[in-house]
Write a structure and sequence with these properties.
By secondary structure, the protein is mainly beta. It has 2 domains: about 150 residues, no CATH class; about 130 residues, no CATH class. About 10% of the residues lie in helices and about 55% in strands. The chain contains 3 helices and 26 strands. It has a 26-stranded mixed sheet that branches. A hairpin with a 2-residue loop joins strand 5 and strand 6. The longest helix is centred in the first third of the chain and has 20 residues. It starts with 17 loop residues before the first helix and ends with a strand. About 40% of the residues are buried.
């Protein structure tokens, strides 16, 4: 069952060392999944409530959760509605009903802003109720005007946001973050999961990252894009961006799409390959380096420097293609680099 007392408060997550947050998040996710698989937890009780907020067309909604998915979609009305779905699993119905009451959702609203936060019993409260473990998840389903500004912090659960044009910030520790049709994304991050952003027109910078999972961006327009993963792949498709920075420690980094004149594209990998597939006719300057792999270009390059390893494979490539109006900086330690026409 879900071990709650070991959890830090979601709102205070930024002050905890990352290794502590990761460890506790994994405990929460693993314990919750064990609770769902436990044959003894045969009874399930569900409680549904709906809150309606009059935040206006560009109000602010903050969500803080511990265990459960969050779904945000664009609504047709002027109000923001939040459906709260609490699910408890236990050996008998009465036990499940008791657990539902122990997990509370705190709601505050003032001045065009609403905050909704999940609270689990812990410490003295848990001891008073003679409970160390509470197998309860809380899911949120949100419908809001397109211009609503959304801020989400979660410990264990997936986050999905669709067609929201206001400022979006979505962070979870154990779960996927998927955003479609956004207008402004300040951050999209997870520690254990996938980050996927598609069909987004962003007026500004986008920061996306995962520690243990892939980062995927498709049909995204932004002034600057930072995408990073430690143990996953970074894949960028059909971007329109002045400056791109993409990094992976133990995965591959892929870019496919057209270049922007005077744009800069920095791709780095440690133990993975880099693939750069270019469409359009924009020229570029390239500085490509691989320590133990090779560099290959299917496009004609007027070279300034070209070194080879002991087997005759090219390790570096410095030169210009076409008018050289964009800049490509590609580096990998133990992988190869391939530049092709898309």
């Amino acid at each position: 069952m879900l071990a709650v007392p070991a959890l830090p408060d979601v709102a205070d997550a930024q002050v905890y060392p990352e290794r502590v947050i990761v460890q506790r998040a994994r405990v929460v996710a693993a314990a919750y999944q064990r609770g769902r698989r436990d044959d003894n937890n045969r009874e399930e009780q569900v409680e549904r409530t709906t809150k309606t907020f009059k935040l206006g067309a560009s109000g602010v909604l903050g969500l803080g959760n511990i265990a459960g998915d969050i779904l945000v979609t664009r609504g047709t009305g002027a109000d923001t509605t939040v459906e709260i779905i609490k699910t408890a699993r236990a050996r008998d119905v009465n036990d499940a009903r008791d657990m539902l009451q122990l997990v509370q959702v705190e709601v505050t609203e003032r001045g065009g802003r609403a905050d909704v936060r999940t609270r689990y019993p812990g410490g003295e409260e848990g001891r008073r109720n003679n409970r160390r473990n509470v197998n309860v998840s809380v899911a949120y389903t949100v419908s809001s005007p397109a211009g609503t500004r959304i801020s989400i912090e979660s410990i264990s659960g997936n986050v999905k946001i669709t067609d929201i044009k206001g400022d979006v910030s979505a962070n979870t520790i154990s779960g996927d973050v998927r955003i479609t049709g956004a207008g402004r994304i300040n951050a999209a991050k997870t520690i254990s999961g996938v980050v996927e952003i598609t069909d987004a027109q962003i007026d500004g910078a986008l920061e996306s990252s995962s520690v243990s999972g892939d980062v995927l961006l498709r049909r995204v327009t932004a002034r600057r894009i930072d995408a990073a993963s430690v143990s996953g792949n970074v894949k960028l498709e059909e971007l329109q961006c002045d400056r791109v920075s993409a990094n992976s420690t133990s995965g591959s980094v892929t870019f496919s799409g057209s270049l922007v004149r005077n744009g800069r594209y920095e791709l780095n990998a440690f133990s993975g390959e880099i693939r750069f597939m270019i469409s359009g006719n924009t020229g570029f300057q390239i500085d490509a380096n691989s320590f133990s792999g090779h560099v290959q270009s299917d496009l004609p390059i007027t070279t300034r420097e070209n070194t080879q390893n002991s087997r005759g494979a090219r390790r570096t490539l410095n030169g210009t293609h076409g008018d050289g109006s964009a800049v490509l900086d590609l580096t990998t330690f133990s992988g190869s680099i391939l530049i092709t026409k898309r």
